[in-house]
Write a structure and sequence with these properties.
Blueprint lengths: L2 H9 L1 H10 L123
Helix pairs in contact: 1-2
């Protein structure tokens, strides 16, 4: 885990995005970071390594997490509405009661993810792998499969 990156994210999504635009070559390492209960609206976490991180009850509306590695992450109760999560790896992630309304999860890896009671209304799941994902009681209206 890169402590500088975590501290910058905790200050604000805007500050992190500005830092990232000046350090495009730097790998984003948020392994097991505690990013719970934060407002990260619009943050750019494309290609970030976030295995096992805790983002419970955080707001990531409109964020970009393309090809982010979120295996076994705690994403419970978080807001991912309108997110770009194309090819993100969320295998084994806890997305219980997460808001994924209108999120683009094309080609995402959701194997064994907990999506119980998640809101997937209007989400795009084209090519996503949902093998053994638990989607009991999830809202699946207008999902694009």
């Amino acid at each position: 885990m890169n402590r500088l990156q975590v501290e910058t994210i905790k200050r604000s999504a805007k500050e992190f995005n500005e830092w990232r635009s000046q350090h495009m070559e730097e790998h984003i390492d948020l392994w097991k970071a505690d990013l719970s209960k934060l407002n990260l609206e619009g943050i750019n976490l494309d290609y970030a390594y976030m295995r096992g991180c805790n983002m419970e009850d955080s707001n990531l509306a409109g964020a970009s997490l393309k090809r982010a590695m979120l295996e076994d992450a705690n994403l419970k109760l978080s807001n991912f509405s309108d997110c770009k999560m194309i090819q993100a790896d969320m295998s084994g992630a806890n997305l219980h009661r997460a808001n994924l309304e209108n999120a683009d999860l094309s080609l995402a890896d959701l194997r064994q993810a907990d999506l119980t009671e998640a809101n997937l209304t209007g989400a795009v799941l084209k090519g996503a792998d949902t093998t053994d994902a638990d989607m009991r009681w999830a809202k699946l209206e207008k999902v694009e499969w």
